[in-house]
Amino acid sequence: MKNIISTAVLFLSLPIFGQTKEDSIQFRRISTEILNKGKSYTELRDLTKNIGHRLSGSEAYEKSVKWAEQKLKEAGADKVWLQEVIIPVWERGTESLKIKAGNGKWISLKMLSLGNSEGTKGKNISGEIIMVKSLAEYDKLSSDQVKDKIVFFNYPFSQSYVLTFHAYSDAAVYRSTAASLTAKKGGKFAIVRSLSSAFDDVPHTGAMRYDKDIEKIPAVAIGNTTADELETLLKSQKVTAKLNSNCGMKGEKLSHSVIGEITGHKDKSIILVGGHLDSWDVGEGAHDDGAGIVQSIEVLRTFKNLGLKNNHTIRVVCFANEENGVKGGQQYGKTVKENNEKHLFALESDAGGFSPRGIALEMDESKIKQIKSWSSLFLPYGAYDFEGRYSGTDIYPLKDMGIPTAELVPDSQRYFDIHHTEEDTFEKVNRRELLLGATIMTQMIYMIDKHW
Amino acid sequence: MKNIISTAVLFLSLPIFGQTKEDSIQFRRISTEILNKGKSYTELRDLTKNIGHRLSGSEAYEKSVKWAEQKLKEAGADKVWLQEVIIPVWERGTESLKIKAGNGKWISLKMLSLGNSEGTKGKNISGEIIMVKSLAEYDKLSSDQVKDKIVFFNYPFSQSYVLTFHAYSDAAVYRSTAASLTAKKGGKFAIVRSLSSAFDDVPHTGAMRYDKDIEKIPAVAIGNTTADELETLLKSQKVTAKLNSNCGMKGEKLSHSVIGEITGHKDKSIILVGGHLDSWDVGEGAHDDGAGIVQSIEVLRTFKNLGLKNNHTIRVVCFANEENGVKGGQQYGKTVKENNEKHLFALESDAGGFSPRGIALEMDESKIKQIKSWSSLFLPYGAYDFEGRYSGTDIYPLKDMGIPTAELVPDSQRYFDIHHTEEDTFEKVNRRELLLGATIMTQMIYMIDKHW
């Protein structure tokens, strides 16, 4: 393509008047600053390449705490501190899953134990695989049919939803409950088709949980093409699986969320922007959620660099332990309550560093209406979607306290190709997309700070 | 991120009534069909991996003609034919650019001759480099200052524009005119900073042209980081450049555009959808414009597969020679005129296979108003932007005949990282993004077919 667009400055010619004109000028200053001088992309390279993945409890996570502290200081925070959080420690260790069709040879499958799952304590556990395509199908099986079997929950991630988060929501119950369901009927362990939009063999980890008073049997994930192949095999013959793994919960530990802020010039009520500093223990935690961390720091830096005198305190929170406990978010909420800290608004970025399309809002209708009245300001930056009624996981405790919460809405098409996998690397993040997300976030924080 | 969005079916609850309800149901059928059963992604893999790049005049281009013919037949076209087009043949051959700072060693730079440029006919041409940052700066130089020099046009691709096409438009004149400007003042050849949004050393080719009666001296492109390094060098010392290249125009040749259609059930007026089959001679021409080709074929296939009885003829055109001549588009327009073929509407996809954001419209205001009145139907599919007033290069001859024309508007953030480079490969295309683009295109063609 080589056509020269004649309407190059179309977006500059939007009607602007009065208050809106001043905001429009500031919006442009913010985007020009970030798209040209933003540091989130190089900071993300540093975080992902020099620290890498950083599961709660790992040494790498503790390194990332020091890293975030340093970056917040460099960004110009007036005050930076660590908030103590007691986090669960889960470790993966070695793991292998093999299958044997009929009397054939054992074949290794690419797999990942699900996060929080117990393993086999280094022993081989094997049994015949039975496959179900849905919970309804599993419900029909008797305990006799499941006893001593390996249950393969082969529920597909739907390609039909336009927003991939809907497909994720639709299939998530399989990841979270497969082990407990299998244990209830006497099965040995569970295999789950990954929550993945990709047509590859990459397994996706992610949190699972055990029901109370249920034997903690293992659950593992396999990639989509591996699941397809296993499904085909099972149609014609008996297949045995053998799991050997060492993963499991290793107690609790004191760790930290990292907080930095610039003090409000008019009052001390708080506008929060954040993401989660931890990641799963595969890949580099680039989109999930290194992106949200560096974007949030970019917001603070941009206020400082542009001399945008913030009325309220703007606070960046790098939450600990979102992935397998949300202890950072819970502790933050508890502290807000204890200290009676007034929060005006909280915005999280935790849906990937892709090209932004809007901000989801979870607050009363009058506030949503007001934010929507600003939408013509956001449109030239590609943000048009203020329809979502949800917000980030870490700020749900704040939402439950009645604080208006929100989440950046990036394009969702690529996210579940790489989410919670070895493929979630820096190379999958595009510089301009990441910076544009930080731009929308800064613009929204600017509007809230000025007009609330 | 692991939050479960509670509004999973929000987009299904949009108000639908009367005519709109029927259209809304068809929109959903179209997206479900394409997102699940669409073949454009696998067809693109086939085109890019088994044929690869396919510059006009090359053997590969002729292979792609046969390929497109076959794919249109497989998609269910009632009629497939080739349209003769006389195309220019430009060949690259070998090429090298070296520089030497002061009395240092010769260092090779990563470079690409610009498309349509003449080379050095295998001889070394060398001279001192002088750098200008803008046309204004170049205008101030006398012929004495430029004579026998190599002019380095070091104009940056702006990061400030939100839509990267605006930055491309802004800088494109350097690529197209550098050689002629340099020749006018007696320079030996021109080096141009690539039209690139990336922070790497990848050179971007693309079409240049010679003014009449001007000596056809060479023009080459270097990547952004190479340009940065050269700029730094030039600040402190004299730098000599040496070019050796064999590129040049090799006359003309008979070639073809490929056309397939499904006949209208009510009348024979034509709705056109297309892209260009040729590409530059580097990379795989995946985003530019393999994507547009396979998406256009997807439109036709979807009408057939869903049994959407088209009132008008839906015609897919795979244009020849967009990149360095637009001869396919020109020939098509000429033939339309000669045969007095009535065209209702023409839609091109030639801005990359990225997540779609809308459709740009070039037609009279009443028609634009009508299309905009459909926008609530498109919104659940992420298409909200019907503001652009341009259309595809290949269909400009139709636009000039008063036919309403349009172009798919994909997200633009990543496009100019890879445009016209060795990096424009299949791996850079995301399956769901490509299919979603084909979805929006099919939906638009469905609406035009039904309501015009």
From TrEMBL, chains A, B:
InterPro entries listed in its UniProt record: CPQ (IPR039866), Peptidase_M28 (IPR007484)
Subcellular location: Endoplasmic reticulum; Golgi apparatus; Lysosome; Secreted
SUPFAM superfamilies: Zn-dependent exopeptidases (SSF53187)
Keywords: Carboxypeptidase, Endoplasmic reticulum, Glycoprotein, Golgi apparatus, Hydrolase, Lysosome, Metal-binding, Metalloprotease, Protease, Secreted, Signal, Zinc, Zymogen
One Pfam family in the UniProt entry: Peptidase_M28
Gene3D superfamilies: 3.50.30.30, Zn peptidases
Ranges of residues in domain Peptidase M28: 258-434
PANTHER family (UniProt xref): CARBOXYPEPTIDASE Q, PROTEASE FAMILY M28 PLASMA GLUTAMATE CARBOXYPEPTIDASE-RELATED
Subunit structure of this chain's protein: Homodimer. The monomeric form is inactive while the homodimer is active.
Designated name of the protein: Carboxypeptidase Q
Organism expressing this protein natively: Chryseobacterium zhengzhouense
